[in-house]
Write a structure and sequence with these properties.
alpha+beta, 3 helices
Length: about 90
């Protein structure tokens, strides 16, 4: 999957993007990020249209193919000030 998704139209290999989430490394030492192909953008490596499957993250593909499970990681309440200011009902 990775080799296929990282291949450019000219046969060379594009880089992989690591897109960090709000908290880069959580308290248990896990990196919270998405990985996806890095499209450079010029005519030789154009960015696919918005709904094109080639723009999906590897995370989403792995869940869709059954190779990964979705785990929701909630923030610690004391780090989210709007919870205590009446923002959450």
């Amino acid at each position: 999957m990775v080799n296929t998704r990282l291949k450019r139209p000219d046969g060379s290999q594009r880089k992989m993007a690591v897109i960090a989430t709000g908290e880069l490394v959580e308290k248990n030492g896990r990196l919270l990020a998405y990985t996806a192909p890095w499209f450079a953008g010029p005519p030789s490596d154009p960015l696919p249209p918005r709904d094109d499957p080639d723009r999906r993250t590897f995370n989403l593909d792995m869940v869709a193919l059954g190779w990964a499970a979705t785990f929701v990681i909630f923030s610690e309440p004391w780090r989210v000030p709007w919870i205590f200011s009446g923002g959450l009902v």
